[in-house]
Specification:
The chain is α+β, with helices and mostly antiparallel strands and about 240 residues long. It has 6 helices and 10 strands.
Length: about 240
């Protein structure tokens, strides 16, 4: 069985745990007020209380891990089972690509649903990597188990390098992306663009923009394609070909 097929299987399994997506600044502000330091501390205490654990979910995670441990171990951080207090939370990841002539960006959007029953998504991270290869591989694992924190990780393979990344967002407004040991504080922009270089280094852009700001995702993609900073970087002769 191929790795891609196993990822699809895992995606189906995680769907039953309501891991989906979402977005909007008003909701985010309300969420930050809801989860002050005292409420976050209360949640941390609940995780230590064995009477609060979701044992059914814990056993399900153990069974899933035993079946697919090789896949979980292939991510930057191995995802072993652990018990958590009961929760109701839906998260999501959406892969996408942007093509500008022969230029190809592979990307992923990480977010959460406004409520588990809602269809509305609030994006927390939009990550794009210049690959110039339609067939380049990208894997993502978004995880709801750290509720109310949103966590995700993944890999991007490019022509001459591989990019590992780990992301977390706190409901009180702090979020971080760590990519090949480069840390991005997403309070200063939730869209990150990576430009791998021929010498195996990489350049980057952090934009104070998000799909949340647009009526539809195509409008966001067009804003990236027309961004002057992006277009200036794309003419560099040191980008991977």
């Amino acid at each position: 069985m191929t790795k891609k097929l196993l990822i699809i299987i895992l995606g189906i399994l995680f769907h039953s745990c309501q891991e989906r997506e979402k977005s909007n600044s008003v909701s985010q502000t309300a969420d930050e007020k809801k989860w002050d330091i005292e409420k976050l501390n209360d949640r941390a205490v609940q995780h230590l209380d064995t009477t609060k654990w979701d044992i059914k979910l814990f056993n399900q995670d153990i069974e899933t891990y035993n079946k697919y441990s090789e896949i979980f171990q292939s991510y930057p951080l191995n995802k072993s089972p652990f018990p958590v207090a009961e929760y109701n939370y839906a998260v999501s990841s959406i892969p996408f690509s942007i093509e500008i002539g022969s230029t190809v960006f592979k990307g992923v959007r990480i977010g959460e649903y406004e409520t588990p029953e809602s269809e509305k998504i609030i994006d927390k991270l939009t990550l794009l990597i210049l690959t110039n290869d339609k067939d380049s591989e990208e894997t993502t694992l978004v995880d709801s188990r750290n509720y109310p924190y949103l966590t995700a990780q993944g890999t991007f393979e490019v022509i001459n390098n591989e990019f590992d990344w780990v992301f977390f967002a706190s409901p009180d407004g702090y979020s971080t992306l760590l990519l090949n040991m480069k840390l991005f504080d997403l309070r200063f922009g939730e869209t990150i663009i990576i430009y791998p270089q021929t010498d195996k280094s990489f350049l980057y852009e952090q934009l104070k923009d998000s799909p949340n700001n647009y009526e539809n995702f195509e409008d966001f993609k067009n804003s990236i394609m027309n961004n002057q900073k992006v277009n200036r970087q794309l003419i560099s002769g040191k980008n991977i070909k």
